[in-house]
């Protein structure tokens, strides 16, 4: 009964010091661990910046060596950040539309129907990755068949199994996006590439490089995060069949359950910022041009805010979690991600009686001082469909 | 049944009636611009920020500590700020006027 459990490796450091340390490729990071500190620093964009010259540095592990295209609006600070965000916000709210939701429901239902009778299902490769890739065709408004290409890329567009940062894999994505942008220029349609190419920004059109920056963010930000969230959800319901039964009986709490699972899983452990000038974080000195990180995963277990932080309380009423980040840079894809989880839970609760875990291999992130389980490298299960 | 009026940032006035759920849900169901309710009402996103009129502050009450922490870091916060997901509809709120904060 503990395979679905995600422990909180930050507790002691969070209580005692409020910060942790990580040496990322020789560029150290001070990790903020308490919810209030994390939120405050996320809000203070002037002191803790995202838009510096060193592209890729706020991602941890740093992508400075494998990327020179700025992700937009993610690696831009206000006020420009807000102007970019205004261009894309409405597009990323489309998951609230009924037609989008119905298409997503059909996708997920057919995936579950396809694997429910199998003797053994490897959840990461046979459910989470196809689900994420197919759903992305809805977000980009492009043909469903395109998802086959992305499924072929594997679980993370940057990380391979041999190394945490894989420049060759990143190049596959960048070349692919270049080609898709050229295609959209030649044949404009109602897909996301074309919408971006046609968008007005500061009295001009977006450049190809800017469009590429938005697309890289869209592909990279929603890939292993969604895959981990889906895989962890399956593991959780495998070990908590009573929760699945409850959600079938009380579908009105599915929204709250999604927020709670997002808090508990915290699919993105942390995100970096660059310190603008000498200052302090949680009473520790932070030097200009050094890095801090906003540790969402730790903040989401802060017992000074969350009662019973290490338990999944499906209908948790007050849940001020930061699983989708906080303030200006909060997750652009959150509406899509929430809709995926909502739909997955709905379909599972209607179609699946129980799930048995057959075998699993944990995916542990090495954060120097902390080792954190974020999900699974592989998870073999057998579904038992409703009679 | 309580009658609630929302005034958006564009100065659009929307008066609606309801008897259960939160003010955020009422606003979202009636497409009030500026009230998104992304997190569904668990006090995690602050996309349902409203300003009460001073005379209604006592009826509605003050925010909890958790809500206050959220408001503190939101734009356009004032002493009359509340997150509408944290206010439950009731007869007592009949006639309430709320200004959408963002």
Keywords for this structure?
heterodimer; A: 387 residues; alpha+beta; Cytochrome p450; five-stranded mixed β-sheet; three-stranded antiparallel β-sheet; 14 helices; 43% helix; globular; B: 102 residues; Ubiquitin-like (UB roll); 3 helices
CATH superfamily of chain A: Cytochrome P450
Any idea of the CATH topology of chain A?
Cytochrome p450
Provide a count of the helices of chain B. 3
Report the CATH superfamily of chain B: Beta-grasp domain
State Rg of chain B.
12 Å
Give the CATH architecture of chain B.
Roll
Helicity level of chain A: 40-55%
* CATH level 1 name of chain A: Mainly Alpha
- State the CATH architecture of chain A: Orthogonal Bundle
Question: What's the short story on this structure?
Answer:
The complex is a heterodimer of chains A (387) and B (102). Chain A has 387 residues and is of the alpha+beta class.
Structure description:
The complex is a heterodimer of chains A (387) and B (102). In chain A, a hairpin with a 2-residue loop joins strand 1 (19-24) and strand 2. The longest helix of chain A has 20 residues, at 167-186. Helix content of chain A is 43%, strand content 17%. Chain A has one domain: Orthogonal Bundle (Cytochrome p450), CATH 1.10.630. With 387 residues, chain A is an alpha+beta fold. With 102 residues, chain B is of the alpha+beta class. Chain B has one domain: Beta-grasp domain (Ubiquitin-like (UB roll)). Chain B is 19% helix and 24% strand. Chain B is built from three helices and five strands. Chain B has a five-stranded mixed β-sheet. In chain B, a hairpin with a 5-residue loop joins strand 1 (2-7) and strand 2 (13-18). The model of chain B has no long low-confidence stretch (mean pLDDT 95). At the A-B interface, helix 2, helix 12 and helix 14 of A face helix 3 of B.
Q: How is the secondary structure organized here?
A:
The complex is a heterodimer of chains A (387) and B (102).
Chain A: H1 11-16, E1 19-24, E2 27-32, H2 35-43, E3 48-49, H3 80-88, H4 98-115, E4 121-122, H5 123-140, H6 147-152, H7 167-186, H8 192-198, E5 200-201, E6 204-205, H9 208-221, H10 224-239, H11 241-249, H12 254-265, E7 271-275, E8 279-281, E9 284-286, E10 291-294, H13 296-299, H14 334-351, E11 352-367, E12 370-385
Parallel strand pairs in A: 2-10
Antiparallel strand pairs in A: 1-2, 3-7, 4-12, 5-6, 7-10, 8-9, 11-12
Chain B: E1 2-7, E2 13-18, H1 23-29, E3 49-52, H2 57-60, H3 65-72, E4 81-83, E5 96-100
Parallel strand pairs in B: 1-5
Antiparallel strand pairs in B: 1-2, 3-4, 3-5
